[in-house]
């Protein structure tokens, strides 16, 4: 019998054997350490029964345990932590936890518990010591949750995130007297009935991010420390102004909602972080009490289910923002603020970070009344500022200010000695404004507003960003006495950098950005500490020699005119460089030895390697990869197919001639040859 006939049977046999084997070893797939059994991702379809009886923690994530059978935990009476994430679990039978009542921490995330929630709920109610319960990602609707949470009087942490809850009523969390943290992130909540949280007297952290809540009114959870309601559709946040107690709220996250008014905060609180970015907040005092417009002054709120709620808010009274005396961070970036109300800052004596980037401010007073002396960071970038109001005599009030971001405005004049007057200023971003640097002569001309700023002798300044400032030239000793470590000058096309422009900072500078300035005649060897350099987009066809005397670690050379990098240079660079950008250069495919040098150095990472191309002698552009280091004039894949196509007809005709010759001159050999080929078993 030909051997071929055995083969399929043999294959089936071995496959059977393999399946049999995995079935047999499945109980020994756990890693045991102390009293923990780690059995995650082991293709288990039931809880292993042969683990030590003393096991306290059992990790069974990423298996396919579709149900927990009544007896499955009988052998583990000391179990405290049980995790069954991602098992496609549908049901927990009612008696499962009767013998392991000490479970404190139970994670059932990412299963399908909506299928048999009543039975599962009954099983869970045996866990009288449960503290942590994770039910996220289980397809649960709000009418199922009460079954799952009945009698959970000891629960401290509960996650119901990624379910499909629509509304919260008074019954849903009724028994959770000890709950400290509740996660309701990523449901579809659009309504919270009054009293839904009334029994949660110990609740400290509540996360309702990524839901559809239209407003939060009558807020009165005084014990709450963190409230996260970001990414909803909230237009109003109004706390109950009648509550006498001090709220414990420290962090209120209302980012990415639809707030039109500044939130009405509790009248007494310890609020420290108020996060409001990505809303439509503005101030409207200029519209109030305007005789020509007859606008309403209060707003009232109704609940869909119960009667009219008593919440009213006085819209225009801007002294009613609530208690902000402990505020540390106010993030109002990406809103529609056109001005800040009079006395706004007097309400926040402890403010240290103020973010007002991307708003509609046309003026801003750096020395407004009440501006906190603890202000540490101020960001007014991306507004419409043409002028920055400053009272020079009260500038030293801002003694703590370290970060000042003025970028993306339309500033053309600033007080000449503004930066020099701020004693602790460390980071200044003036990018995309039209402000020049004062020369030595201009410097002594006084303190008034001018189109240049003094940057000399500022002993605290470390980082200075002047990207796209249309700088015409850097005057002599522009930064003398200012120990900059980080200087960004990119985008100042045509800026003239004099020989002595940077003398003051040559010993301190670590990062220098000179991208796209198109006039790169700088002697880099003076910067003894420089380790990062951006000289992209400068039409360079050769690397400046002075650059090779540095020990650069980060070098950006993209969008230049480099055709090659001499191997000697590549070698020197590779001693110190670990990050390199080279995209957008017209490299020559025949001169890629530098690439091998970098490869061999093993420490150089070309960040944009995947996008590099080179040009062949014929002008064809091709992808550059390590594999194709010998790409010179080379046949790339496409053209080799052309050769095949061209040669194929010739080859075929030659073969034809040979066969005709063969058949014509050795006719008697043909049948035997065919016969032998057809009958001989193929040598497998
Ligand atoms: C489940 O497995 C996936 C992929 O292996 C992994 O990313 C995930 O973290 C695992 N989940 C758990 C809870 O271990
Ligand atoms: C609960 O157990 C999980 C492991 O299953 C662990 O990651 C988590 O930190 C525990 N939670 C608490 C509050 O101990
Ligand atoms: C739940 O608590 C109620 C009373 O609050 C009690 O009657 C009931 O037996 C408890 N159920 C379980 C399963 O403990
Ligand atoms: C609020 O929740 C979102 C989404 O999980 C998260 O990115 C953000 O950091 C949270 N906010 C706070 C203050 O923790
Ligand atoms: C009153 O409202 C009108 C139109 O809305 C506006 O033009 C005017 O400037 C307002 N008056 C004040 C004092 O703001
Ligand atoms: C202003 O409001 C009052 C009461 O709401 C109303 O009687 C009056 O007609 C309104 N006036 C104008 C000019 O709209
Ligand atoms: C709603 O109002 C009616 C009468 O005005 C009252 O009988 C009922 O108790 C109120 N319902 C609630 C939930 O306050
Ligand atoms: C202001 O901050 C200081 C130090 O951080 C702190 O001691 C003080 O209690 C804060 N004041 C208020 C009103 O929160
Ligand atoms: C500037 O500040 C000083 C001291 O804080 C104050 O006396 C003076 O009135 C202010 N000047 C202006 C124009 O606001
Ligand atoms: C400057 O900052 C340092 C800490 O960074 C701080 O100790 C010092 O008090 C600040 N100086 C002023 C004038 O606030
Ligand atoms: C200043 O703000 C701009 C725009 O918001 C941002 O891109 C830039 O990184 C900020 N500068 C600094 C030094 O943080
Ligand atoms: C820097 O300050 C010193 C004294 O503090 C002074 O002698 C020197 O002239 C100043 N340099 C510049 C460039 O202003």
TrEMBL record:
SUPFAM superfamilies: L domain-like (SSF52058). It comes from the Eukaryota. Residues 1-20 form the signal peptide. Gene3D superfamilies: Ribonuclease Inhibitor. This is Negative regulator of reactive oxygen species. It comes from Scleropages formosus (Asian bonytongue). The keyword Repeat applies. The chain crosses the membrane at residues 641-665. Keywords: Leucine-rich repeat, Membrane, Repeat, Signal, Transmembrane, Transmembrane helix.
């Amino acid at each position: 019998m030909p051997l071929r006939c055995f083969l399929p049977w043999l294959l089936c046999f071995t496959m059977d054997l393999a399946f049999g084997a995995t079935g047999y070893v499945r109980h020994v797939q756990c890693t045991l350490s102390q009293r923990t059994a780690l059995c995650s991702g082991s293709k288990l379809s039931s809880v292993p029964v042969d683990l030590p009886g003393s096991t306290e923690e059992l990790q069974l994530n990423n298996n396919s345990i579709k149900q927990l059978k009544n007896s499955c935990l009988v052998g583990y009476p000391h179990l405290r932590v049980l995790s069954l994430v991602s098992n496609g679990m549908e049901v927990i039978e009612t008696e499962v936890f009767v013998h392991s009542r000490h479970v404190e921490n139970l994670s059932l995330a990412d299963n399908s518990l909506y299928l048999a929630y009543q039975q599962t709920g009954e099983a869970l109610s045996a866990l009288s010591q449960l503290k942590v319960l994770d039910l996220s990602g289980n397809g649960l609707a709000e009418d199922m949750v009460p079954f799952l949470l009945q009698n959970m009087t000891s629960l401290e942490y509960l996650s119901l995130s990624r379910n499909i809850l629509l509304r919260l009523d008074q019954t849903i969390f009724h028994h959770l007297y000890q709950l400290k943290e509740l996660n309701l992130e990523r449901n579809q909540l659009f309504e919270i009935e009054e009293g839904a949280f009334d029994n949660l007297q110990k609740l400290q952290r509540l996360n309702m991010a990524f839901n559809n809540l239209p407003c939060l009114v009558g807020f009165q959870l005084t014990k709450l420390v963190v409230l996260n309601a970001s990414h909803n559709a909230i237009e109003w946040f109004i706390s109950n102004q009648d509550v006498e107690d001090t709220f414990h709220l420290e962090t209120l996250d209302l980012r990415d909602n639809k707030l039109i008014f500044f939130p009405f905060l509790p009248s007494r609180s310890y609020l420290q972080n108020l996060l409001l970015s990505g809303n439509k907040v503005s101030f409207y005092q200029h519209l109030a009490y305007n005789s020509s417009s007859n606008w309403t002054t209060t707003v009232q709120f109704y609940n869909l289910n119960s009667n009219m709620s008593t919440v009213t808010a006085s819209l225009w009274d801007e002294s009613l923002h609530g208690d902000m005396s402990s505020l540390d961070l106010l993030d109002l970036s990406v809103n529609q603020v056109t001005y800040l109300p009079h006395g706004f800052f007097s309400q926040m004596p402890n403010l240290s970070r103020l973010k007002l980037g991307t708003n509609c401010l046309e003026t801003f007073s750096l020395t407004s009344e009440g501006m906190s002396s603890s202000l540490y960071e101020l960001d007014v970038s991306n507004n419409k500022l043409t002028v920055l109001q400053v009272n020079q005599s009260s500038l030293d009030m801002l003694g703590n200010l370290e970060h000042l971001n003025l970028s993306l405005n339309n500033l053309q004049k600033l007080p000449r000695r503004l930066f020099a007057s701020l004693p602790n200023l460390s980071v200044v971003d003036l990018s995309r404004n039209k402000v020049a640097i004062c020369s030595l002569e201009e410097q002594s001309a006084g303190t008034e507003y001018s189109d240049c700023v003094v940057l000399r002798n500022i002993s605290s300044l470390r980082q200075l960003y002047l990207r796209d400032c249309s700088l015409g030239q850097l005057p002599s000793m522009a930064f003398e006495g200012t120990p900059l470590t980080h200087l960004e000058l990119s985008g100042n096309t045509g800026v003239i950098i004099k020989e002595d422009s940077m003398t003051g900072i040559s010993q301190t500078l670590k990062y220098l950005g000179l991208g796209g300035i198109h006039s790169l005649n700088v002697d880099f060897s003076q910067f003894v500490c420089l380790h990062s350099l951006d000289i992209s987009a400068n039409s360079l066809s050769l690397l400046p020699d002075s650059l090779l005397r540095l020990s650069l670690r980060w070098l950006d050379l993209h969008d230049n005119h480099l055709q090659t990098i001499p191997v000697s240079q590549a070698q020197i660079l590779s001693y110190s460089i670990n990050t390199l950008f080279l995209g957008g250069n017209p490299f020559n495919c025949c001169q890629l030895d530098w690439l091998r040098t970098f490869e061999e150095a093993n420490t150089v990472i070309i960040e944009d390697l995947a996008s590099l191309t080179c040009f062949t002698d014929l002008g064809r552009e091709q992808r550059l990869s390590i594999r194709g280091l010998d790409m010179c004039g080379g046949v790339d894949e496409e053209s080799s197919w052309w050769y095949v196509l061209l040669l194929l007809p010739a080859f075929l005709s030659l073969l034809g001639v040979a066969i005709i010759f063969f058949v014509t001159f050795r006719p008697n050999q043909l049948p035997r040859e065919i016969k032998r080929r057809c009958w001989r078993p193929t040598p497998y």
